[in-house]
Structures are given as structure tokens and as C-alpha cells.
Amino acid sequence: MSVDAATVRRIAHLARIAVKEDEVSHLQGELNAMLAFVEQLSEVNIDGVDPMTSVMPMEMKKRADVVSDGEIPDKVLANAPATEDHFFLVPKVVE
């Protein structure tokens, strides 16, 4: 796959990057070099290679997925202008 000058201008427009007309040919070469490298990567045999999050094998830190009130509902509601039964009261905005 290769990128032409019109595609470079479109990419620059979508990325909101100001590109002068004399820079288009240089950027075209840069983008084509990147795409050629990506095409090279698709030729690598990755059969049997597991996805990884890091080059070092490690277990992701996880917290328990439990619902709680944070054990500080009074502190959370301390600055609220209006509360009722540990809930925020808000003015009605929809009829």
C-alpha cells in the first residue's frame, strides 16, 4: 500500500495539522516508509505466541470487584447542600 499526495493532505486535514505544499512530498515518503515497515511485520510468524502486556512476565494487580459505600458516607455527604437517607437531593429539572 502506498500513500499519494492527496491522501497526505487528507490525513493532515483530519489530524488538524498544517502542512505546507513543499512538505507534502517529504511526508508522503515518511508515511510510505512506515506502511512498508508495517507490511514487513505482517510477514512475521506469530503462531503460538501469546499476547502480552509487558516483556517481563507479571500478574496484573487487581482489586476485588465488590460494591461498597466506601465506609465514609457521612464524609462524602458533608458538603452536600441537601441530603436525605445518605443520598444527594437535587432539584427537579425535568417535568
Strand adjacency order, main sheet: 1-2
| Net shape | flat
Helix tally equals 3
Mean pLDDT: 90
- Main pleated-sheet profile: 2 strands, antiparallel
Given helix and strand content, the structural type is mainly alpha
Helix content: 25-40%
Query: Cα-atom Rg, whole angstroms?
Result: 27 Å
The parts where pLDDT drops under 50 for at least 5 residues are none
Number of strands: 2
H and E order: HHHEE
- Beta-strand percent range: under 5%
Distance between the termini: 57 Å
Protein name: Aspartyl/glutamyl-tRNA(Asn/Gln) amidotransferase subunit C
Catalytic activity: L-aspartyl-tRNA(Asn) + L-glutamine + ATP + H2O = L-asparaginyl-tRNA(Asn) + L-glutamate + ADP + phosphate + 2 H(+); L-glutamyl-tRNA(Gln) + L-glutamine + ATP + H2O = L-glutaminyl-tRNA(Gln) + L-glutamate + ADP + phosphate + H(+)
Enzyme class: ligase
Keywords: ATP-binding, Ligase, Nucleotide-binding, Protein biosynthesis
Question: Can you give a write-up of this model?
Answer:
The protein is mainly alpha-helical and 95 residues long. It has a two-stranded antiparallel ribbon with strand order 1-2. The longest helix has 18 residues, at 24-41. Helices cover 34% and strands 4% of the residues. It is flat. The protein has helices spanning 5-14, 24-41, 73-76; strands spanning 83-84, 87-88. It has three helices and two strands, in the order H-H-H-E-E.
